Amino acid sequence: MKKTFSLTGLLLFATLAQAKVTNSYSLSKLMNKSENLSSLELFWLGQNGPLNKNYGVTGSYGPFGILGPFGDEWWNATPWINGTKSWKDFANKIGAIGGPLSEYGPLLITTEFGQALSSYDFGPNSGEILAAGGVLHSVGPSGLNGVMGVGGPLGPHGIHGYKRDEIGKYRNKNKKIVKSIMVKTIDGKKRFPLYELYKEGIAKELTDLDSSFVAQDKLSSSSDKHQYKITASSKRWVNITLVSAYTLDSLSLRLLDEKGNIIEVSDDSYRSNFISFKTNKKTALKIEVSLKNSFQFLMKPYRLFVTEAPAGATEVKR
């Protein structure tokens, strides 16, 4: 039987073949080349800074750890906020009268005007340090602490109105999975990805991961490795931050291409590891999490935050 190939298929193949990571860096790369950093950047990357793996913003006891508001335990706020059914219609009404999904809500920061505000220096070089490509990208406006992160209007505590199902996906009132929403901004209507908080052990089994979610899982030993297959958005910075649940565990983070070739590695023992990257097109990649060392004999739970920056986000050339 004669085989035929469609023009669409050939164009798709050509596009994927050209897709690649055009810019990337990791915490470990920054620290290994610390002579290229300013004294202010080194200060913020200090062992007792916001990335401290125990008590920092991205530490085990910080707001993104298991004791914080995000999670599925009884002490977390997520189960109580999530509710029992979708409330999208009510969310739309709130947005229409100036609520969080209105033109002047938190997503204002994703517009051209908002990006100009986010690049403003509220402290010495703060705009550059916190920007996409900056040393504190993780906790800046384009990271997990930003408006498109887990705590923003697109996350599990957001006002999009969609209920999480038994694995953490969002569903509308007709039980259909929802991955993104349209929001009216001062720059016109834009589509934004929802930020999923997946139940423990689920995300690494999924084949439709984008670049906006939280994975929860546990490692058993140093030989245990978890891989996540994601599709990164085109021409946007993406930040990956790994948060260990226990202070006695140190974890390693890797970014791989689709064939398994290493792009970036971060295996710092004193700070929460992160990798930031940018692609030229929609790109299939893999994230690998493993155990570097541990001083306890129980399981090693962790959270993996994958956060994409707004389109056209203020960035630092690195």
Explain the layout of strands and helices:
Blueprint: H1 7-18, E1 21-26, H2 27-32, H3 39-44, H4 78-82, H5 88-96, H6 112-118, H7 126-130, E2 163-164, E3 170-171, E4 177-178, E5 180-185, E6 188-193, E7 196-197, E8 213-219, E9 225-232, E10 237-244, E11 249-257, E12 262-266, E13 274-279, E14 283-294, E15 300-308
Can I get a quick summary?
The chain has 318 residues and is of the alpha+beta class. 16% of the residues lie in helices and 28% in strands.
Give your account of this protein's structure.
There is one protein chain. The protein is built from seven helices and 15 strands. With 318 residues, the chain is of the alpha+beta class. The protein has a single domain (21-308), classed as Sandwich (Jelly Rolls). It has a six-stranded mixed sheet with strand order 1-13-10-15-8-7. It has a four-stranded antiparallel sheet with strand order 9-14-11-12. A three-stranded antiparallel sheet has the order 2-3-4, with no helix packed on it. Strand 2 and strand 3 (170-171) form a beta hairpin. The longest helix has 12 residues, at 7-18. Mean pLDDT is 89; it is low at 1-5.
